[in-house]
Amino acid sequence: MAWINLLLLILLLVCLITDLKNRRIYNKVLFPTLALAIIIHTFIDGWAGLSTAFLGFLIGLGILIIPFLLGGMGAGDVKLLAVIGALKGTSFVIVTAIYMALAGGIIAIVIILMKKGSAKALLYHFFGKKYGVDLPYEKSALSTTFPYGIAIVAGAIFTLFSQEKITLW
């Protein structure tokens, strides 16, 4: 499965660059990679490989579809996790999703804390809630967005390299 690992790393690198640069993850990158994942798995393991790719795709898609439908995530992010599932299977995409969520939370906290006025807004928010007082603060200081592909890539890379045995060639 060394080709799958190499293909995954190339996919992650390209998607990271395009998400950082343009805040987009392109179908022209995702769809050919999905096709290659299906072809490789089917060629190597037959029907079992095809079902592995398909089930991994569905699990990856299912993990992020609700945040997408609620407007909290882009379609490219959803498709990227689905393609990761098609490449590496269900257990890999589930573990990736856990690390992705942790990375996304850390990135969000760092971004909010670095935003002007956010420390004051956080203090006002938490102390106001604790004592039942609505203190005035700039609520926009606590809201921001970032390209979530960063968190997905971080989760996938951490999952890939934390596995016991990994071969790239």
Question: Would you kindly provide a written description of the structure presented here, covering whatever features stand out?
Answer:
This protein has helices spanning 2-22, 27-45, 47-69, 75-88, 90-114, 118-131, 149-162. It has one domain. The chain is built from 7 helices and no strands. The chain is mostly helical and 169 residues long. The longest helix is centred in the middle third of the chain and has 25 residues, at 90-114. Helix 1 (2-22) packs antiparallel against helix 4 (75-88).
Write down the overall mean pLDDT.
87
Give the overall shape: elongated
Give the number of helices. Answer: 7
Radius of gyration: 19 Å
Low-confidence spans? none
Strand content: under 5%
Give the SSE map.
Elements lengths: L1 H21 L4 H19 L1 H23 L5 H14 L1 H25 L3 H14 L17 H14 L7
Helix pairs in contact: 1-2, 1-4, 1-7, 2-3, 2-4, 3-4, 3-5, 4-5, 5-7
In short:
The protein has helices at residues 2-22, 27-45, 47-69, 75-88, 90-114, 118-131, 149-162. The chain has 169 residues and is mostly helical. The chain has one domain.
Keywords:
169 residues; 77% helix
